[in-house]
Every structure is written in structure tokens, then in C-alpha cells.
Amino acid sequence: MPELPEVETIANNLRNGSGDQPSLIGCEIRRAHLLWERTLAEPTIDEFTKRVVGQVIQAIGRRGKFMYFNLTKDTLLVHLRMSGDVWIEPIIATWGEHYRLMLELSEGMRLVFSDTRKFGRVWLTEKPDLILGHLGPEPLDDAFTVQKLFEGLQRRHRQLKPLLLDQTFIAGLGNIYTDEALHLAGIHPLTISETLTIEQAERLWFSIRNVLQAGIQRNGTSIDWVYRGGDYQNYLRVYGRAGEPCKECGTPIERMLVGQRGTHFCPQCQLNPSYQD
DNA sequence: CACGAGACCTGTTCGC
DNA sequence: TGCGAACAGGTCTCGT
Q: Which of A51, A63, A65, A218 is flagged as catalytic?
């Protein structure tokens, strides 16, 4: 499920509480229950259990597509990859078939990491920067300017679609929001980065921030069984709409493979200046 | 450096 | 209806 807006939504709900769910801030971790070993990237399960128990959750946030929990001593990092989800619920004797990690908390609640496809990972570390340090800029930060984006585009010679998915270039974009941003900007996914004009870079900058902010405002995108609660899927311009008319010009949306990812675009609104076809 | 293919996994949908 | 192929919000690693 998880791109920046979905991770942001989950992290916000855990931090602030939502509906009947309390905030996790101030909760102490009492027990750890790992149900799929490979979910834990580091440290070993023995050391994880020994270290995590007794620590208190002091802050919760997001960096790129990572969720972080600042504990008394360590940082707990969670990456949901394709099918992960995190929530809290009362402690009961049973658990769901896709649960991979449960952390029992004070107040009779447990923090659940559920992940059908088992791609998700959890780290417990004193030095989160070793894992987060390679990430590119946060697209919604003030520090992420048109000029920064333009310089980055100039420095590389890459197709835009895979470049925008590259987390060292910008942190947080995934397949959905990349396609959405490129369509909003009116730029073809195969355009070579260094050929963008400053005007195009500005439109791309605006579009990236616009679709991410809209996604957050709508609590993320809910497709299939994976992530629920958001409704940005009702506002998608191109993703998952192959064959349907472009909302700008009526031309059927096309789908192609770019770097093995389904890529959706309007052949009319997103002309490719690098090729003629 | 840039790119494609294959791995890692399970579940749903599509096409014949 | 049934069965295999294609596909899915991600990223890593290897070969060219």
C-alpha cells in the first residue's frame, strides 16, 4: 500500500490517536512477539526482545516511506513495503494470519505489524541515520525547492519515472503518486531528466507536492484489500485508469511498462519530447 | 552511471 | 468451471 501519504496517515493516527484509539505516546513496551523472522531486519530476535522491552514510545513520525518510533533509548523503524500495515488493538489471545510482529504495551493494547506479502521490515537501532541517511529530500519540506529539484534533474540522465521512484532522489514517491504527479505536470514518464526546462521542473515540483498533499488530505489511497481508510482512489487522474478517458482531454489513458512498473499516462496531455511516437 | 531482470512473498483478477 | 498467467502502493542485488 504505502507511499508517503499512507505512511503519514498511519503515523499521525498512532501519534494523535483516532476515533476510539488512544495515542501511543507514553506507552511502555512490555513484550515482543515476532511471528515471521525475516520481518526483523536488525538486530537478532534475542537482542531485539531484550532491548525493546521496557522502552517508552516518546515520538512517532515519518521519513520518506519509513515510520519511526523514538523510544527511550533506541529508534524503531518500520517499512511497510508492498502490503504492510500497522495499528493498535486490545491484547487478546489470538492473532490474524498475516501478523508478523506484535508489541504488547501498557494500557492493555498491542501494536500490530501485519504484512501479507512479508516484504516489510522492522529495525531497532541506536543510529537510525545509518538507514535513513541515504534518503533524498522530503518533498513537502520547505528545503525542497524548485531550484533543488531542477539541479537534481540536471545532474542525472535518467527517465523521469524511475528517477522519481528512486528514494535517494526524492523520498516518499511510489508508483501511484509518481504517475499522478507526471500527469498533473503534463510531462511524459520517459522524458529524460536533464532535458526538462526550468518551467517544466517548476510544474513537476508543484505537481509532486500537490498530489502528495491531496493524498494526505484524503487519508491516502485505498485499493484492493491492502490499505483502508483513505479515499484518494476516487480522485486519481491516471493510475489504474487504462482505457478510461483522460479527465483533461478525453483521450484514453494508456498503460506501459517502465522499469517493470505499470505506468499510466495520457498520450495527449503528456507528449514525449525525447521521442516521436 | 543507467538499465533490465530476477528475488523476495501471497493473494486476486484476467484470459482462454 | 478450471487453471495458469499476469499483476499488485517496494526495494535489493547482480549482470551488462
A: A65
* Encoded amino acid at A10, one letter: I
Instruction: Compute the distance between CA of residue A234 and CA of residue A240 in angstroms, rounded to an integer.
Output: 11
The pTM of this model reads: 0.97
Is A104 marked active-site? no
Q: At the topology level of CATH, where does A4-132 sit?
A: N-terminal domain of MutM-like DNA repair proteins (3.20.190)
- CA–C1' span, A157 to C14, in Å? 22
Residue A189, C-alpha cell as written in the block: 514518464
Residue A1: per-residue pLDDT = 60
Q: What is the pLDDT of residue A274?
A: 63
Residues of chain A whose pLDDT is less than 70? 1, 274-277
Which helix (H) or strand (E) segment holds residue A113: the answer is strand A109-115
- Domain A146-265 grouped into CATH 3.10.580.10: no
A54 strand C contact, CB < 7 Å: no
| Euclidean distance between CA atoms A62 and A124, whole angstroms | 15
Question: What pLDDT sits at residue A107?
Answer: 87
